[in-house]
Amino acid sequence: MRRIQVNVNGATYEHEVEPRLLLVHYLREGLNLTGTMVGCNTSNCGACTVLLNGQSVKSCTLFAVQADGQEITTVQGLQTNGDWHPMQTAFHENHGLQCGYCTPGMILASISYLKENPNPNEEEIREALEGNYCRCTGYENIVKAVQQAAGQTS
Amino acid sequence: MIPVAFDYEVAESVDHAIEMLGQYGDESKLLAGGHSLIPIMRLRLAAPSVLIDLGRLENLRYVRDGGDHLKIGALTRHRDLAFNDMVAEHCGIVGYAAGLLGDPSVQHRGTLGGTLSHGDASGDMPSVITALEGQIVIQGPNGERVVKASDFFRDYLVTDLGEQEVVTEVRVPKLDGNTGWSYKKFSRRSQDWAMVGVAAVVERSNGSIGSARIALTAMGATPIRATSVEQALSGASLDAVGEAAQSADEGTNPASDSAASAEFRRHLARVWTKRAVEEALSR
Q1: Å from B186 to nearest chain A CA?
Q2: Which DSSP string do the residues of A81-128 spell out, in sequence order?
Q3: Which of A74, A86, B119, B123 has its CA 20 to 30 A from that of A29?
Q4: Residues B172-201: pLDDT tens digits?
Q5: What average pLDDT does chain A have?
Q6: How far apart are CA B127 and CA B132, in angstroms?
Q7: Which of A20, A65, A109 shows the shortest C-beta gap to B5?
Q8: Per-domain residue ranges of chain A
Q9: For the CA atoms of chain B, what is the radius of gyration?
Q10: What CATH fold (topology level) applies to the domain A86-153?
Q11: What is the pLDDT of residue A153?
Q12: Residues of chain B with pLDDT under 70
């Protein structure tokens, strides 16, 4: 076992964890933050995407011990004072979801990408989300949502 | 799947990592970004008993001007390379390929030193660094040594790295204005490994081709130089590319697997070598 201290969604947590515990399982089962999904378990689908120090990562391909001392944001940490993040609002207004399973990962990957490229064109958005699968194939509205959010944040 | 249980150690420095490699021996494994190692541990294809995490060594995360070459720290993330201005200006193929592999989230974690140490001939960076005739800086208990990329990749997932050695830096040449580059990757789906990839670095000289360096991804156990194409293009005219590329699969040994047959890979190598060299000449 190994003691870790992480900041998740603004709160500090300290736990003894087994080194092989994956970050996604620590978030879901250790902290009960079930907004982060388990999808393919092979670093492909992006359902488990969270922000590590502000950058999108796949929490199924990271051990919790690697996140020791770092800052993590999940979909449940995006609100400020009860207000949705502009990306959440944009997904809501554009109906950027069908079943909703991929949505937390889509939103976090999109937020991360807009920090790198605040004014992407449609093709760039599609490429930036290549690591996030929507098996409902609802990509059209997801891309529209990111375009709307980009317009607001730029 | 959940990996087999292991002990976890954080390396405070390269020397500390080398010391721990000595202490734990071949049951231990270095962890950098983890985007090659963790997936195979999850499949239980690898089960190291100790992981030595290099991930905190921020001093190995850099791109520096080395005069006629760039020095890239082994812990530099692919995403850093994709957005690095010095890389874009002097050795664009490195930034382009780093931005092509995996996806942005993978690029945020995966490192150049990690992907080269993993030594997968289906990976993009090994053939890019091979085509550039880059150099790998390795540190071990007896100090530092520098190995040419062509000597670094030995066999399928086997590199020149000794049991107690760590890749610390990668050196790639600055390409001058007469030298163009291309990396072509063919895969069925976004994010897939390359069925075949072609890295080409081509020097123009007085309206013809001066020299070409071409390395193939996924055409054998290691990145393979398309030497017969390189020889045919040396000093050749620009319209020689199509015919020269016909020998791109000479000396290769591609696998047949669920992604493609060996015969199809040979075909792809010929087609994409032509396209890669043509694109390099246009840049």
Answers
A1: 16
A2: TTBPPHHHHHHHHTT--SS-SSHHHHHHHHHHHHHH-SS--HHHHHHH
A3: A86
A4: 999 999 999 999 999 988 788 899 999 999
A5: 96
A6: 9
A7: A20
A8: 2-76, 86-153
A9: 19
A10: DNA polymerase; domain 1 (1.10.150)
A11: 57
A12: none
Cβ atoms of B163 and B25 within 8 Å: the answer is yes
Determine, for residues A42 and B5 on separate chains, whether the beta-carbon distance falls below 8 Å: no
Q: Which two tokens stand for residue B199?
A: 């890295």
Q: What domains does chain B contain, in order, with CATH numbers?
A: 7-53 (3.30.43.10), 58-173 (3.30.465.10), 181-282 (3.30.390.50)
Give the separation between CA A16 and CA B229, rounded to whole angstroms. 57
DSSP annotation string for B33-96: S-TTHHHHHHTTS---SEEEE-TT-GGG--EEE-SSEEEEETT-BHHHHHT-HHHHHH-HHHHH
DSSP B222: S
Q: Of A52, A62, A113, which is closest to B104 when you measure between CB atoms?
A: A113
Q: Do B55 and A66 touch (CB under 8 A)?
A: yes
Q: How far is it, in rounded angstroms, from Cα A20 to Cα B268?
A: 40
Q: Give the tokens for residue B62.
A: 């850099």
* Residues present in chain A in total: 154
Question: Is residue A139 within a helix (H) or strand (E), and if so which, with residue range?
Answer: helix A139-153
**Could you tell me which residues of chain A have a Cβ less than 8 Å from any Cβ in chain B?**
2, 18-20, 22, 41-44, 46, 49, 52, 55-58, 61-63, 65-66, 109, 112-113, 116, 128, 130-132
Copy the structure tokens of residue A33.
Answer: 């933050």
What is d(CA B234, CA B226) in angstroms, rounded to the nearest whole number?
A: 12
pTM of this structure: 0.96
Q: Residue ranges of the alpha helices (H) in chain B?
A: 14-24, 37-42, 78-82, 85-90, 92-100, 104-109, 112-118, 124-131, 149-152, 227-233, 241-244, 262-282
Same fold, A2-76 and A86-153: no
d(CA A131, CA B117): 24
> What is the spatial order of strands in the sheet that B179-186 belongs to?
B179-186, B196-205, B208-217, B224-225
Whether residue A43 and residue B6 make contact (CB cut-off 8 A), yes or no, is: no
Which CATH number does the domain A2-76 belong to among 3.20.20.110, 3.30.470.20, 3.30.230.70, 3.10.20.30? 3.10.20.30
pLDDT at B1: 84
